Amino acid sequence: MPGFSSTIYFPGLPDVTADLNAPAIATTLTAALFVLAMGISPVFWASLSDFYEVRRFLFLCSMIIFAAASIGCAFITNIWALVVLRCVQSVGASCGQSVGAGVVADCYPVERRGAAFGKYFFGVFFGPLLGPIIGGFLIMSSLTWRATFWFCFAFGLFVFILLFFAFPETYRIGSKFDLELPIKQLAKKSYTSSAETIGQSANGGDESANKKENMESINIFEEKNKEQSFPNSSSSEKKKTMNPIAPFFLLKHPFILFAAVASGIAFGCMFAVETITPDLYEVNYGFNSWKTGLSYLGGGVGNLLGAVVSSQTSDRLLLRARQRRGGQEIVEDRLSVTLWPAFFIFLPFGLLLFGWTIVYRYSVWAPIIGFGAINFGMNLVMTSTSAYLVDALPGQGASVTAAANLVRMVFACVLTIAANPMVAAIGAGWTCVFLASLCVVGALMLLLLKLKGEKMRRRSGHH
Length: 463
Fold this sequence. Notes:
The structure is a single chain. Helices cover 81% and strands 0% of the residues. It contains 17 helices and no strands. The relative contact order is 0.14. Mean pLDDT is 78; it is low at 179-237. InterPro entries: MFS, MFS_dom, MFS_trans_sf.
C-alpha cells in the first residue's frame, strides 16, 4: 500500500506541475515528503501496536485515514495543499511498514521467517513498481492525474473491507514463542529421562513407588519453572508505558544501525532511480506517461525474481549453518551468501547500466534491464536485513522494523530530492556512479556486521 500509493502518480508529475502552476521543487516534495512521513509514522503505529497489543484495529484505522486523504488529493487545486495531504495519505498507508512485519513475526517461527519475509517484501517493493504502470494508464483518461487518487480511494476502501471481514488479530508475545517454548520442551524430555534413570537404578524399594515420588518432584520443578518462564503480571512483568519515540533509541545499537543504514542505501538508490525515470525517458526516448509506466515492468520482474530467490535460500542457508554448528543458532546466519553478489554486483551493475546507457541513448531495453537488476539486488538485501533485525530482537519486531524503516525512508527522501538536481548538474551517468559508490559502502557495513555482529549484540545486551 505505501509503495503503491507513493508512485502511482509519477508518470503524471509533469502534468501536476502544469495543472497546478507549481514550481518543480514543490512537485518533487509531494514525493519526497511522502517518503519521509512513511519513515516517521510507522514508529507511532509500532508503539501503539506494542502498547495495546493489537494489529487488526490499527490496520483498519490506517485505511480510513488513507482513503480520506486520497479523496482530498483528487479534489485539490493548490500544490502546497497537495503536499500536506500527501503526508496525511502516507501516515495512513504506512501502518503496514512496521505492524505488517510484526504480523510476520506473529505467524511464523524463526526457521520459516526468512521465506515469509521474502513474500512480505515482494509485496512491499512490488507496489512502487506496480503503481506507475497502473498510473500511466489512468492518467490517459479524462480525469488526468486526479484519476490516480480516485483509484487510491477505491483501493483503500477495498482493503478496509477485506481486513474487516477476513483478517484476524495476530498479536502474541514473540519473546516467549521464539525462545522459551523450545527450551521447555527440551527440559521436559530431560526430566523424563532422569526419572526413568532414577527409577531403574533404585535399590531396596518398590520401583513404582520410586517412580511416583520422582515424578511428583519433577511436577513440582516444572510448576516452578513455568512460573519463572511465564511470570504473572503482578510479580515480574514491568508496567507498560507507551513511548512513541522509543524505537528511535534502538538505533543507538551499532548492529541495528548498520543493518538499517545498509538497507536504507539499497532502498534509497532504487527510489532515486524510480524518481528520475519519467523525465529521463521522456527526454531521451520520447516516452509518454503510459509508456513510462510500462517501463517499470523491468523493475517488477527483478523484484519478483529477488523474492523467489530470497524465499528459497534464506531459511535453507540458516538451517544449514545451524547444522554445521551442531544445532547452535547465531542471528548473523541471516546475513547469508546471497547478500554479497546482491550488494557488490547486482546493485552497482544495475545502476551503472541504467545511467550510462541512457546517457549514450542505447536501446531502451538496456536501462530497463538495469532497473531490474537494481530491484533484484535490493530485494535480497531488504529480506535478509529485515529478518536479521526481527530475529536479533525477539518480541520487538514492530519497533525495530519501524526504526529501520525510518532510516530507509530518510535515505529515500534525501536521495529523491537530490536526484534530479544531480542529473541536471553532472548527468545521469555520474549520478548513478555516486549511487553505486554508496552501495559499496553499504556492502562493507554488512560485511562488518557479519564478522562482528555477535560481539556488537553482546556489548549492547541483546546476545
